[in-house]
Amino acid sequence: MISRRNVRIKVMQILYTMNRDETITPQLSRKQYDTSVATSYKIYLLNVLQLYKVAEYVNDDAKIRAAKHLPTAEDKDFSTKLFDNPIIQTIADSASFRSLVKKDKLDKLLDSDFTRKIYKEFVKTAEFKTYQANTVDLQGHRELLLEMYKFLAKHELFEERLEDYFSSWQDDKSLVVGAMKKTIKRVNGEDDFHKQYLPESETVKEYGEELLHKVMAKDDELFELIEPMLQNWEAERVATIDMILLKMALCELMYFETIPTKVTINEYVDISKLYSTPKSKEFINGILDKLMKKLKEQGLIKKTGRGLVD
Question: Using H for helix, E for strand and C for coil, what is the string for the chain?
């Protein structure tokens, strides 16, 4: 589930924290990195659980409607297929999912009043009413659940709750939303449906942990390569985030043989747009361009495979 872009951001944030707090050791920073990665997966699991709980509330709604003294035609025709469909039932029947929910105590992060509120607002939508009024196949269930998750993910209260519980929510949001959409589109009877979204070792360890280690271990060496490129800029005046991004990019250029140079430069320029100053993208792009030319001349960029060095 976690992409290299996401890993770069996590590494950047940990290096920034280290810069601000000198008591953080390399060992502690690696633990923080592992925790950050695990948190991304936990957020995904919580999103699955919240979707499930909203769908499950249809059973309570059906009981309330059935108990009415004078039920309407809509009440009499009301169906619990929002919960009974194969996708939600896969989540309900997954022992491995329930085990993770219990282990991480995710149930305690949910609020029954919020779940009821989301459900009651969603059942008023045209999408749900159409779904209830018609016979639908598996694809129909998927489309409705995608609409329901979209409704949930955009809800202001849901955003607020996730931000309260997870400081990394805004960084992980697009990643989690993408994984949720894939889950709804693909899940159908697999107990371990969620495991395919576990962080991959190649991305998290072979790339992410190594990048963090390299930047920390070679901090002085990286700075010595960057400083001559600053020209009219004094190193002390360079934004902290910009210097961290330059060091990370330089590490990728020099020590990660399978990552194309163009990809590295584009990625760090894009990250600077999100996390640094308005002028950072031009600054970082210019410095990295000069650094790459110098490193090429010195034979310090060694990439394996065709097209990896521009």
Answer: CCCHHHHHHHHHHHHHHHHHCCCCCHHHHHHHHHHHHHHHHHHHHHHHHHHHHHHHHHHHHHHHHHCCCCCCHHHHHCCCHHHHCHHHHHHHHCHHHHHHHHHCCHHHHCCHHHHHHHHHHHCCCHHHHHHHHCCCCHHHHHHHHHHHHHHHHCCHHHHHHHHHHCCCHHHHHHHHHHHHHHHHHHCCCCCCHHHHHCCCHHHHHHHHHHHHHHHHHCHHHHHHHHHHHHCCCCHHHCCHHHHHHHHHHHHHHHHCCCCCHHHHHHHHHHHHHHHCCCCHHHHHHHHHHHHHHHHHHCCCCCCCCCCCCC
What pLDDT score does 263 carry?
Answer: 96
- Reading the block at residue 227, the tokens are 């400083």
- 30-69 per-position pLDDT tens digit: 999 999 999 999 999 999 999 999 999 999 999 999 999 9
For the chain, the residue count is 310
Q: For residue 212, give both structure tokens.
A: 């963090």
Q: Per 3-state DSSP, what percentage of the chain is helix, strand, and coil (rounded to 5)?
A: 75, 0, 25
Task: Tell me the per-residue pLDDT of 191-242, one tens digit each, with 9 for 90 and over.
Answer: 999 999 999 999 999 999 999 999 999 999 999 999 999 877 666 678 899 9
pLDDT 10s digits, 73-117: 999 999 999 999 999 999 999 999 999 999 999 999 999 999 999
